Amino acid sequence: xxxxxxxxxxxxxxxxxxxxxxxxxxxxxxxxxxxxxxxxxxxxxxxxxxxxxxxxxxxxxxxxxxxxxxxxxxxxxxxxxxxxxxxxxxxxxxxxxxxxxxxxxxxxxxxxxxxxxxxxxxxxxxxxxxxxxxxxxxxxxxxxxxxxxxxxxxxxxxxxxxxxxxxxxxxxxxxxxxxxxxxxxxxxxxxxxxxxxxxxxxxxxxxxxxxxxxxxxxxxxxxxxxxxxxxxxxxxxxxxxxxxxxxxxxxxxxxxxxxxxxxxxxxxxxxxxxxxxxxxxxxxxxxxxxxxxxxxxxx
Length: 299
Hints:
This protein is of the alpha/beta class. It is built from nine helices and 14 strands.
């Protein structure tokens, strides 16, 4: 009887680690165990409990209601057991996989990411820059940086800051174009649209609203190119003030219709909920949050 109970607890220990890792291949690597062995042991646990714990119709790890209940019941106990049983001191090392939009890294975060890399020389950063949504579990991502709505509610979200959108153009373009006094006149101008906000929502200080979804002279997927196009007298750009500030300071861009405020787009860190978060992930999240205010302040 005791042997049977001990065997079941070993399987539950594996199950909790599986959920924390986010997938069979991840936990197999973590525990130095073949994926087939992990799958066989989980199947054995389901047979012993006479219930399905994991839905296997997808590559993602999806728990049944019974699986979620079992994880919730044992995750703290397993974490405590592991902490008591693990005498080694975890070191800040290994590969940290990050996913983020192209412009967020290159125009806001690259400096602080480089500082983090210097502070922790044994952590290697692998950054995937992609404007498209990716499957964070399938891609083995540790931390994602996203704008707007959280794509997957199973991930924990921590806010870094907010981007305030508005209209911007070069003095040269404004001097040669029709005078602009209201957003409804945008249709008569050369416009520059850039991912991810191809349609523009604006609100006046008096409460009036305006929405533009018409054509643009130029449409891009990278804000770097869009800013350069605006600086080169290419037209009016709807973009985040933080990205425009360096060019405004240099006199190369101006805020157009400043009484009309654009959208606010929140930038957040996403990471997988684990009872024992890897040290490299903890350190990165803490470092980014410590520097977030400085990064998103417009001075």
